[in-house]
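Friendly challenge for the regulars: who can give me the structure tokens for this chain first? No prize, just bragging rights.
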Amino acid sequence: MVTRLVLASASTRRLDLLAQIGVTPTLVVAPAIDETPRGSELPRQLALRLATQKAAAACALPEVVALGGAVAVLAGDTVVACGRRVLPKAEQEDEARACLALLSGRRHRVHTAIALACAGEVRTRVVETQVAFKRLDAGEVDAYIASGEWRGKAGGYAIQGRAAALIPWLSGSYSGVVGLPLAQTAVLLGWAGVV
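First reply, four minutes later:
Bragging rights claimed.
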């Protein structure tokens, strides 16, 4: 029996990435959890906790429970960090500008965690990618802010959009920076019988 997949994410990017590997979820839900970092929580730990909590919260939603039978719930979270400092999912222009100022001319790390809950078991993976921004001048920052692509994005940028022109180098998973490390996701989906 093929397991039905529930994607626990409001991110259209994650839906698009799944389509890229030929996977279409049966249901997409967006569980609400508190994403506030805890005390001295490291970026990797934060991403893993949030992905796991999203999967658990989605499993308890009535529309997921109603599916019954063989169901796997996939959740993910992406955390952008400079050292131990977690950058916000920028919602305001000043937040995005502060993120870009911090990222300009330096490397940072993107931690993307995935959690797959199936048959009472949860399996997780965390993928870390290093990303380097070129040194940004005021005009580049203004143009990127004007694009609006930064809104709601971890670290105030979307690598799959105009920010690609600002990033000369990365080491790790490009799809992980976008929001879902596809190689690791495919392994988990295979374990659950989805693909």
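Strands lie at 4-8, 27-29, 71-82, 85-86, 107-118, 121-132, 169-171. The mean pLDDT is 94. Your move, everyone else.
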